[in-house]
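Page 37, top half.
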Amino acid sequence: MKAGMSFMVGLGVGVAVGILYAPKSGTETQDFLTQKAKSGIDQVSGAAKKLQTQAGNLADKVKEASQ
C-alpha cells in the first residue's frame, strides 16, 4: 500500500512539473491532457470489458464442468 501511495505522489509531482514547464500554451496543454485522459479511460474501459467477457466464459466453463 505504501509503494502505491508513493507512486501516486510521484505521478502527481511529475504531472505538475510537466505542466509548469510545458512549451505549449495553457489551452493547448489542457486540450492535450483532456485527449490523453479520454484515451486512458477508453483503454481502461476496453480492458474491463475484456476481463468481464473472460470471467463470464470462465464461469460458463465451471458450470459445464460441474454438471
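Page 37, bottom half:
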Amino acid sequence: MLPNVRSSNDLITSRAATRDGFLKQAFTKTHKAAPYISEAHELAHVLEHIEDIDQLSHISNPRVQAALIAAAGFSDKARGWMHDSELEPALAQVLEHIKHNAPEAWREEIVYRFLLTRGDTLGGSIRNVTGAEGGFQLSRAIVAALEAGGIQHTPALSKSNKAKTVSIEWLNRLLVFDRKPVFIANNVDAILLDTSVFMPGTVTLENPSSFLACGELKGGIDPAGADEHWKTANSAFGRIRNIFGNLSMTIPSLFFIGAAIEVAMAQEIFTRLQDGRLTYAANLTVPQQVADLANWLISL
C-alpha cells in the first residue's frame, strides 16, 4: 500500500484542483498571447495606411508578409513545408476571396483571420506546456528529495528550453525524460537507469538490463481528456511488459502520474496497483503524492 494512496478515492482529482489548473492555464495563455496581440496591432496599423487590398501583394516588409500569410491560414509550421512560390498564389487567392466577401471591411477581416491562425498556434503552445508539466513537477520533486537527503546530483536542461529538465543523474542512477529507446520503438515519458551496469562513458538506452523503472506522465488538467491519456499510458505499460517478457527479462517498475484523474480511471489505476501491473501512481495535483513518488524513485 502506498503511503498516500490507500484507495482509488485518493487518486481522484478534486474539483478545486481542476479549477486551479484551468486558472493557471488561463494566466499562461494571457502571457503567451501578448506577442500575437502586438503583431495584430502592428498589422492593423499597416493596413490603415493601405488604400486598396490589391496593394498588399506588393508589400515587401517580411513581418507584414508573415502576418498576411498567417491571415491566409498558414501556420509557421505549414510555412516551413512550403516554398514562397507556393505561398504567394495561395495568399493572392485568399485576398481575392476577402475582397469579394468584405469589400468595405477587408482590413478587419484580415486581422481577424490572422488572429484565428495565431490562436491555433497559441493552443499548440499551451498543449506543449501542459504536456511538459508532469516532467517539470516530477523533476522538481526529485531534486528536492535528493537535496533533502544530501545526495549529489546533476540535472541537465534542454538546450532549446531552459525550463525543461531532460535528465537527472545521481550516484549510479540516471533518470531521463521523453526518450525513445530503439528496442521499445515508442516514446517513454520517464526512464530510470542503473548506470552501474555500463562502462564509463557508455551509457545507452538500448540495454534493457539497466532499466529500473518506466513512467508515464500526463500533465493535462482537463477531465475530458483524462480517459484518453490513461488509455495511452496503459497501452505504453502493456507494450513495455510484453517487450521485457519476450526478452525473458525482469519488467521494470512501472509508474503513472497524472493531473486529471477521474473516478473510473482512478479505480483502474488502483486495481493495477493491487495486482502488480503498476508499482506506483500519484496525482500530480497532490504534492505529497508527488513527493512520495520521487522518494520511491531515488530509493530504487
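Margin note: The chain has two domains: 8-26+129-299, 29-125.
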